[in-house]
Write a structure and sequence with these properties.
The protein has 501 residues and is of the alpha/beta class. It is 38% helix and 21% strand. Bound molecules: NADP nicotinamide-adenine-dinucleotide phosphate and magnesium ion. Magnesium ion binds next to strand 3.
Length: 501
């Protein structure tokens, strides 16, 4: 395999990508039934990084069979909640012990800086597993006093159980490959579901390595199945499969709608974490020392490839010039390069498609009259790099203001009347996240109340925690990831009623 990466590559990672990677079905690593593989690329060079088994409908069939059997007959359902929790905790320990290796894998496959993968992606995934391990023993029903007016004199004992929903299909994107796998696997396993996970075609490697740790931790066969492949084949087959009880999806709103359609066959439960075009509101009384770098990292973190990226920056007029120049300065100083270079602060976009998509948006913005006061172009000839970009002279009706770009591009717009800002901020089909910067605590909370978004950050941005629910209003999704809310995605309630007198 032509591994076009720097010589400092982690030895275990070099071994891992040397051989074609197989898929995990029923506790075994197998080739695809078709025998096909597909390449995953190093986005810093555009060169092939590894070959991966290409799962399609037939492989999904086998994986669902294994997950079904593991759910209906396997030891998994007979395990105590405590045993399940311990396995998830063990997985967290194993992952933590391999932080360095996962950092490399993530950086190579996705392009993000190694230091960030090690400091954010891997520890957040570890913490998520630990948080969910704790939930395994705390998924409780209620005892409910019932009156039943049409059976006077009778007495009942009524209670609810929260039971696992069954076989969960999970389809994830490429922006946080390992973390998205953790967000999906952690709660499903805590609730006692079995899983078929399809990682993104661009970034399957960390999920496959995680699958090895799942088996090392001692999960019974068939509980976790991982089938890499394309969305149109493997993903669509999983979403439509009649033996899958629940589908959890993270990705674009467009594909989210396809998932909903595919799920109608057996009315499987659906949860969706979709796109965003998040407003970031800076009032004139904000502490600009923190608001300026805060607004910059709100968009530039992970190269803007965040569903919650602060991509619409609204700045109150008296401080507009100062903030916008500050953010542009920040953008110009960002060191863009290969994720493995220790100097790098921003890596390449994930793929050639994503690069052309982002460049297409830049052209569309310029043709509609926007101007770039930082960046505005593709960077270099090799790899999928784009300059951190700040666009001004934009209007609400422009595509760059309305549509999710999913790249390091922010539109900065002034507002003069604090009353006008809320309808503008809410003028989006999305409602994933929003932020407000002000030192007036009353104004901060009034603004937060009126923003139609699943997350509102005040004087901060991109703060995530396993305990804090995350998900979208409007077309940004159904249901929540993380926190105790996510348990609703993987459990169903059974009411049990006994006549006792
Ligand atoms: P996408 O198509 O929504 O991909 C997300 C996942 O869904 C991938 O695993 C994909 O498989 C799979 N998929 C695609 N079509 C499917 C189908 N018909 N049935 C079932 N699964 C299917 O996203 P993308 O194409 O990678 O990126 C396009 C845009 O989506 C981005 O520019 C961004 O705006 C948005 N996006 C949002 C998020 C988020 O976190 N909300 C994440 C990524 C992208 P493949 O691996 O074959 O694509
Ligand atoms: Mg890749």
């Amino acid at each position: 395999m032509g591994i076009a990466v720097s010589p400092q590559i982690h030895p275990q990672v070099a071994d891992f990508i040397e051989k074609p990677r197989k898929m995990l079905i029923n506790g075994k690593w197998v080739s695809s039934i078709s025998g096909k593989t597909f390449p995953t690329y190093n986005p810093a060079t555009g060169e092939v990084l590894a070959q991966v088994a290409e799962g399609d409908r037939q492989d999904i069939e086998e994986a669902v069979k294994a997950a079904r059997k593991a759910f209906d007959q396997g030891p998994w359902r007979r395990m105590t909640a405590s045993e399940r929790g311990r396995l998830i905790w063990k997985l967290a320990d194993l992952l933590e012990a391999h932080t360095e290796e996962f950092g490399y894998l993530e950086s190579l496959d996705n392009g993000k800086p190694l230091a960030i993968a090690k400091a954010a992606d891997v520890p957040l995934a570890v913490d998520l597993f630990r948080y969910m391990a704790g939930w395994a023993t705390k998924i409780e029903g209620n005892t409910i006093p019932i009156s039943v007016p049409y059976t006077p004199g009778a007495k009942y004992l009524a209670y609810t159980l929260r039971e696992p929903v069954g076989v969960a299909g999970q389809v994830i994107p490429w922006n946080f490959p390992l973390l998205m796998a953790a967000w999906k696997l952690g709660p499903a396993l805590a609730c006692g579901c079995t899983v078929v996970l399809k990682p993104a075609e661009q970034t399957p490697l960390s999920a496959l390595r995680l699958g090895e740790l799942v088996m090392e931790a001692g999960f019974p066969e068939g509980v976790v199945n991982i089938v890499p492949g394309y969305g149109e084949t493997a993903g669509a087959a999983l979403a439509a499969h009649p033996d899958v009880d629940k589908i959890a999806f993270t990705g674009s709103t467009e594909v989210g709608k396809l998932i909903v359609h595919a799920a109608t066959g057996n009315l499987k439960k659906v949860s969706l974490e979709l796109g965003g075009k998040s407003p970031n509101v800076v009032y004139k009384d904000a502490d600009l020392e923190s608001a300026i770098p805060g607004a910059a990292s709100a968009i530039f973190f992970n190269h803007g490839q965040c569903c919650c990226a602060g991509s619409r920056l609204y700045i109150e007029k008296p401080v507009f010039d100062r903030v916008v120049e500050g953010v542009a300065d920040y953008a110009k100083k960002i060191n863009v390069g290969s994720g493995l270079d220790p100097q790098t602060e921003m890596g390449p976009l994930v793929s050639a498609e994503q690069l052309s998509r982002v460049c297409g948006y830049l052209e569309s913005g310029f043709s509609e009259g926007a101007t770039a006061i930082a960046g505005g172009h593709k960077k270099g000839d090799k790899g999928y790099f784009v300059e951190p970009t700040v666009l001004v002279n934009t209007r609400e009706d422009m595509k760059v203001v309305q549509e999710e770009i999913f790249g390091p591009v922010v539109t900065a717009m002034p507002f003069s009347d604090p009353e006008e800002i809320l309808p503008r901020a809410n003028n989006s089909e999305y409602g994933l996240a929003a932020a407000v910067w002000t030192q007036d605590i009353g104004k901060a909370h009034r603004t937060a109340e009126h923003l139609r978004a699943g997350t509102v950050w005040i004087n901060c941005y991109n703060i995530f925690d396993a305990a804090l629910p995350f998900g979208g209003y409007k077309q940004s999704g159904w249901g929540r990831e993380m926190g105790h809310d996510v348990l609703n995605n993987y459990t169903q309630t059974k009411a049990i009623c006994t006549k006792i007198a």
